[in-house]
Task: structure prediction
Amino acid sequence: MTPAEALASVLSHTPVLASERVECAAALGRVLVEPVASGRDLPPSDNSAMDGFAVRAADLEQASPDSPVELKLAFEIHAGGIPERPLEAGECARILTGAPLPEGADSVVRQEDIEAEGPRVRFQQPVPNGEHVRRRGEDTRVGETILEAGTRIGAAETGMLAALGRSYVAVHRQPRVAILSGGDELVEPDGDVSGGRIVSSNSYSMAAQCRLAGAIPQYLGIARDSPEALEELLRAGLASDVLVSSAGVSVGDRDFVRPVLEKLGCRLEFWGVQMKPGYPLTFGLFPEGTSGLNPLTFGLPGNPVSAMVTFEQFVRPALLHMAGHTALHRPTLDVTVGETLRKKAGRLHFVRVTLERRGKEVVARSFGNQSSGVLRSMCDAQALLIFPAEASELPRGGRARVQLLDETFLASRQPAF
Result:
């Protein structure tokens, strides 16, 4: 099965999760289930966009530097205050930014545009009607749809919800992901690594990848190399929406995942994908779990790089889809190949690369060691270069596409202004 076919299979079996109500302050990054309409006009009244003087534009029609117009300073209005009375002809009112415009006034003259202050204020030029006035409802009107269903809540949306007086909002539930690793050789980070034992680093990288995708990971532990131990942890994971395991999905004598999955009623959709790293990948669905859904299961390879790459390509899009997102994949860039790359045709390769800006182009350079066991290479990699299955060579200076892993590459050290 090709990676594209495998991804299509995963997404076709991945549900969008139901809604839950959360505090707006805790909804950052979540996706709205339903549209949000305004229950109020914003701003609630005409108000000043500047510190200055509220006036009647008609009073200043004849104002000029040679023949200034003087208006009586009648009163002052602060933000949050209420004008004490309407503004009469021949009057002006001191007004601060955000303060409501008094009845009778239709414009604001900036403080720096007047000649002098005192009991009477001198104006040297006309003012357009509506100058420096924020009109009632120019931001939102009562009943107007402000945020559509499917909107990802960012900083601006959080502020908008607060401005609309919303304390809670309906969003798609976050996926719950059960994580386990398998193997007698695995220990926790503080465990004894003598005698060929290794730390179960995959569980920690996968949990971090879950969090970055907006999911909630639950670490189940290490399954020892016995069907009984594996079955116990897999059963515990059925309360989650997704179960992700690493190792134990090849065809070795001590790989028990497939028979245990089948014993638990899992329907396997595929076993193996034509890609490198990450060929021994499995995906399936359990019968209805305790959450009321059919939990998905991903069996990832045991090698650290393979586990992380397959998570990025298949698990991450599924988690984002579950949470209601429509943009499921990391950004891509077209780049220049920094040195000739070669492989045997037949499988799509994800090549770990660093990126370098050279003028208007971006150059991708491969790590020398592309072993799927070299976890440090994922720390240094900024992107995965897509080496097509049918190709056996990408020449130096040729063009290729990369999938960004480190999106800070797009950030700039220089300000935009």
In short: The longest helix spans residues 304-322. Residues 6 and 109 are 64 Å apart (CA to CA).
